[in-house]
């Protein structure tokens, strides 16, 4: 009793582990196992109502059918043990239960790796099959040579051939998965390399713009300040225009630094003094600057302020109002202008509309600013419209989401998420490979078909 205690403990722990593994199995896999096991049991019990069997054989037929059915769920979890456990069904008197052994062997062989372990399991199973075949057949059949020949044919059809087919398909699956992973890795590396190249090129462009435009704008701002001081003393009527020139140059320099920050990958939250851009005070300041320059412009703001809106939305609002007022300065400086901003829960509507301009007051334009606005707002998921009004004026209107989806520039760290989940799926599952795998799978069913045909012929002759 003491010697059996460690063996009982091992058996109990093995049973507990098996129960836990079954509980962790998804429900759909349990349903699959139950359906397949029921089919195997039904096939194994065919001789009971069809053939007139002795009472002793009926017990063997039922026992072997139940045993074969129990091997179906086991072949997915314990393939080596399942392969060894097919020996009683192989050597037993239930031919119908043995007819499903190629399928069980095929399923178990696909999950045994490496190949040396598989063929050692096949060899051990063959030895067990041969020993049980001798025990069953020598007492009732003819000579030893006849038993060995029948065993060799059965072992080849029911054991070796299905195991070989399962090994081929089982070893192909991890290789395909490895190719998929390598291809995905290479695509990710390629995207990261391209993103790095773009970031470096943006940094180069930002450096060039800083060295060239930044220096020029700084000089313009300095000279505009000197001009403002001189105009205040010598020509007070030009003082406001000189001040506008200085503040415009200063704003252009600030916006250039902002663009350089975007090119260098600066975060929207690190904009510093521009955090108020696009809010109501900012738009009122733009309107006040236009009034100071002599434009008859009114602002009508409905809804809440944009303090809590997305920075990209506020920036777009600022761009639309500024571009609209800039166009009024260029083309219709004497026309009455209205700036309308309506803030809703999910969108911001911006309109800059002016009346007809006086003859000869228009300057030629390239519409490049309007095209840039259209592209910028489209990236945010909004809509943009610009064009003449029926009254002879001009309208610039935009509808911008308060919380745009995504980002207005591609972050290198997010680029790999755009990869397809299975980059090699189309290549790995080409029709020739599918047909080849199907032919190998049919080889595993060949013993079943041959055995059923032999049984039908034997029943017809008898």
UniProtKB/TrEMBL annotation:
Domain of life: Bacteria
Protein name, per record: histidine kinase
Residues in Signal transduction histidine kinase subgroup 3 dimerisation and phosphoacceptor domain copies: 201-266
Record-annotated membrane-spanning stretches: 34-53, 60-79, 85-106, 118-136, 148-169, 434-461
A single GO molecular function term of this UniProt record: phosphorelay sensor kinase activity
Entries under CDD domains matching the protein: HATPase_UhpB-NarQ-NarX-like
Keyword Nucleus set for record: no
InterPro entries found in the cross-reference section: HATPase_C_sf (IPR036890), Sensor_HK_TwoCompSys (IPR050482), Sig_transdc_His_kin_sub3_dim/P (IPR011712)
Any one GO CC term of the record: membrane
The organism of origin for this protein: Saccharopolyspora kobensis
Enzyme Commission number(s) of this protein: 2.7.13.3
UniProt xrefs under Gene3D superfamilies: 1.20.5.1930, Histidine kinase-like ATPase, C-terminal domain
UniProt keyword list: ATP-binding, Kinase, Membrane, Nucleotide-binding, Phosphoprotein, Transferase, Transmembrane, Transmembrane helix, Two-component regulatory system
Transport among keywords: no
Enzyme class: transferase
Signal peptide: none
Catalytic activity: ATP + protein L-histidine = ADP + protein N-phospho-L-histidine
């Amino acid at each position: 009793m003491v010697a059996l205690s460690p063996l009982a403990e091992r058996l109990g722990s093995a049973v507990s582990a098996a129960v836990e593994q079954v509980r962790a199995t998804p429900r759909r896999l349990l349903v699959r196992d139950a359906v397949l096991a029921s089919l195997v049991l039904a096939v194994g019990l065919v001789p009971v109502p069809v053939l007139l069997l002795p009472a002793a054989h009926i017990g063997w037929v039922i026992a072997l059918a139940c045993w074969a059915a129990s091997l179906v769920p086991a072949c997915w979890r314990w393939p080596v043990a399942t392969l060894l456990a097919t020996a009683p069904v192989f050597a037993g008197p239930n031919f119908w239960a043995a007819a499903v052994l190629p399928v069980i062997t095929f399923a178990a062989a696909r999950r045994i790796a490496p190949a040396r372990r598989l063929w050692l399991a096949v060899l051990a199973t063959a030895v067990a099959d041969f020993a049980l075949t001798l025990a069953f057949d020598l007492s009732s059949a003819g000579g030893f040579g006849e038993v060995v020949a029948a065993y060799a044919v059965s072992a080849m059809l029911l054991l070796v051939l299905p195991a070989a087919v399962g090994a081929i398909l089982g070893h192909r699956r991890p290789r395909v998965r490895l190719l998929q992973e390598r291809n995905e890795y290479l695509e990710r590396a390629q995207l990261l390399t391209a993103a790095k190249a773009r970031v470096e090129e943006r940094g180069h462009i930002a450096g060039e713009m800083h060295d060239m435009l930044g220096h020029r704008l700084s000089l313009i701002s300095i000279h505009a300040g000197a001009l403002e001081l001189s105009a205040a003393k010598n020509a007070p009527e030009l003082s406001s225009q000189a001040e506008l020139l200085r503040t415009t140059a200063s704003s252009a320099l600030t916006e250039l630094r902002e663009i350089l920050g975007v090119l260098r990958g600066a975060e929207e939250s690190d904009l510093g003094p521009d955090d108020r851009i696009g809010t109501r005070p900012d738009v009122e300041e733009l309107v006040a600057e236009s009034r100071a320059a002599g434009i008859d412009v009114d602002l009508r703001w409905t809804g809440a302020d944009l303090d809590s809106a997305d920075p990209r939305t506020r920036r777009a609002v600022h761009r639309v109002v500024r571009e609209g007022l800039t166009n009024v300065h260029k083309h219709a400086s004497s026309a009455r202008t209205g700036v309308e901003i309506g803030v809703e829960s999910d969108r911001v509507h911006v309109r800059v509309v002016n009346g007809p301009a006086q003859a000869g007051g228009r300057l030629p334009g390239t519409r490049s600013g309007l095209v840039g606005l259209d592209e910028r707002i489209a990236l945010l998921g909004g809509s943009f419209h610009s064009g003449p009004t029926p009254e002879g004026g001009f309208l610039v209107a935009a509808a911008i989401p308060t919380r745009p989806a995504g980002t207005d520039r591609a972050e290198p760290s997010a680029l790999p998420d755009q990869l397809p989940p299975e980059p090699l799926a189309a290549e790995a599952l080409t029709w020739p490979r599918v047909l080849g795998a199907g032919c190998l799978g049919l080889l595993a069913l060949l013993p079943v078909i041959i055995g059923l045909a032999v049984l039908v012929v034997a029943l017809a002759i008898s």
